[in-house]
Amino acid sequence: MLKIKKVLIIIYIIFLILNIYNFQVMAKAEAIVTLKSNKDKFMQGEDIEITVNLENSNTSAFNFNLYFDTDKLEFIDDQDYINIVDNKIIYVWYDKSGGENSKTGEITKLKFKAKSDGICSFLIDGNFYNEKGQEIDTDFNSVQIKIGETKEISNLQKQTEEINTKGQSKTNSKLQLLRIDQEGVSPNFNKDTFDYYLVVAGTINNIDILAVPENTNATVNITGNKNLVSGLNKIQIEVISEDQSQKNIYTINVTKTNDAEVANTNLETLAIENVLLYPVFDNIETKYSAEISEKIEKLNILAIPENEKAKVEISGNENLKEGENTITITVTAPNGYTKKEFVILVYKRNLEEEKKFINEQENNKQELEHAYEIEKLSIDEEEKIAEEISVDKEKNKNRNLIVMIVAVIIGVVVIILLVRFFIFRK
């Protein structure tokens, strides 16, 4: 019985020594980062203060990202360690003293200004490290605030009401919806676009059309959609305002053929030399816009058809005047009668507008260069911190290895002494 007790005592001592090491090396602190607002509800123009707190742990280095809604909030703080990219605040910090000034509790406070009504959320994520360079297991909590009175009508509701009110005007002669039972119509429907194009198979005789006016009291007349003939057909949707004073005609140019390629009026490329086209060219779109310098008199336009046998004609690209100019690119299909028009609305700046444009470009260039420098500094700072953390981790790893070796040696010595003690005592 005495021998069993002796063996149990020896095993317990070994277990205790090894667990001291495991506790020091393997244990990681569990922490939580919370966001707190100074209030739950704000009015437009009010300052908002968000506090970042670390609970249940100390940190000697961290980097976190705080995300916010730039449409409703403006970041007005000016601190070191901060960089802003779009809707993300990047905050990087480390204790230069090596752990003497580690942080817990309140980490920092960030200030915003309320811009527009709505519900805003603040989200956070990142990495936190203790004085030994070990990453802390961290959970993150978000916070939500409200801007404006809940009973107030939202901007979206106001816009919807304005659209509905405008739509019911007695002089409104536009459509709010245009749908047909065939695929391939271009461009996409827009109430201010009045010409559309479609190629259908030779077996199609009728096309069903749904045309809904913005003013439900307006009159809609549809003609040309029945008994289609081979070749070109024009379907017209006539919209007459409620008071009979205004009229708009939407035209769908339909080519009926068994060979769609001979009716191909699509462009493969549409571009202007040294000028940006908006939106970016897409074959389904027929209307574009561009802005040019007051010095430009003529535009070189590249318009290449998908079918090399199609004919392309360009008009309006010479003798450009200040203000609005309309350039028309007409593509005639190989069959000779199917046509599609692409329109580019070009605005030519005057001398005063040109000077303002050049100043804005220069300011934008300086802001971009400044933002790049800030980003570069932030990246350099993060790399420096990462390098220091890596060095600390390596030192900590070596220190732990030494502790383990010492612990094992002490354990072996203790075991030998205990064995010798019990043997000689016997």
What does this structure look like?
The chain is of the alpha+beta class and 426 residues long. The protein folds into three domains: 122 residues, Immunoglobulin-like, CATH 2.60.40.680; 103 residues, Immunoglobulin-like, CATH 2.60.40; 86 residues, Immunoglobulin-like (Sandwich). Strand 15 and strand 16 form a beta hairpin. Helix 1 runs antiparallel to helix 3. The protein is elongated. The two termini are 14 Å apart.
The total of beta strands comes to 23
Top CATH class of the largest domain: Mainly Beta
Distance between the terminal alpha carbons, to the nearest Å?
14 Å
Share in β-strands: 35-45%
What general form does the structure show? elongated
List the helices and strands and how they pair.
Elements: H1 2-26, E1 30-37, E2 41-42, E3 47-59, E4 61-67, E5 73-75, E6 82-85, E7 88-94, E8 103-114, E9 118-129, E10 137-140, E11 143-147, H2 155-167, E12 175-180, E13 195-200, E14 209-213, E15 219-223, E16 231-240, E17 247-256, E18 267-272, E19 287-292, E20 301-305, E21 311-315, E22 323-332, E23 339-348, H3 351-425
Parallel strand pairs: 1-10, 2-11, 13-17, 19-23
Antiparallel strand pairs: 1-3, 3-8, 4-7, 4-9, 5-8, 6-7, 9-11, 12-14, 15-16, 16-17, 18-20, 21-22, 22-23
Summarize the structure.
The chain is an alpha+beta fold.
What tags apply to this protein structure?
single chain, 426 residues, alpha+beta, Immunoglobulin-like, 3 domains, six-stranded mixed sheet, five-stranded mixed sheet, 3 helices, 27% helix, elongated
